[in-house]
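the two lines:
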Amino acid sequence: GNSVTQMEGPVTLSEEAFLTINCTYTATGYPSLFWYVQYPGEGLQLLLKATKADDKGSNKGFEATYRKETTSFHLEKGSVQVSDSAVYFCALIFSGANSKLTFGKGITLSVRP
Amino acid sequence: DTGVSQDPRHKITKRGQNVTFRCDPISEHNRLYWYRQTLGQGPEFLTYFQNEAQLEKSRLLSDRFSAERPKGSFSTLEIQRTEQGDSAMYLCASSRGLAGPQGEQYFGPGTRLTVT
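prediction for all of em together
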């Protein structure tokens, strides 16, 4: 079946540090890939997405590139802020009848001032 | 968009009781999804509706769980004879009815269920 694997957390960084959160997937075919973010006390929000190989999704300074050859979708940000502290989920979806999301376990990011 | 809303936000119940949760999707969205999220895990798919039709149910959805979406608007998720293992965050999401990956899912804030 389809699955998403995220690096183990939590991750703690100082403000303005570089962030990389790894995500790899296993799927038959070519899914669309997403990063969702969950801020404390809030619901899941779509952060960025990529729908085909070599696409780069970007939003709020975050970027991720769909790498078909390594089945990866790593999230990066050049300079994190305290306000980026949240839980980050990588997910995949296939087009088709049900379009259900398959999520990774999530990783908690804490950014220190 | 007023967003996806869920009610209640928190529910504490005793084992063996029945509970019902409600989800109101974004008004023009015809797809509605239920997911369950336990501590330290990502959300897991439970079931999904296209308008009023329930098109898929996960094996996670035991026969104690039932979901409805009358008239294709709001949805309810009922859990009968709750067990401690049902304690989780129940998330609702909605999307436009596109078959492809562009049908972004918008999530509600969730209902946190605690079974004592």
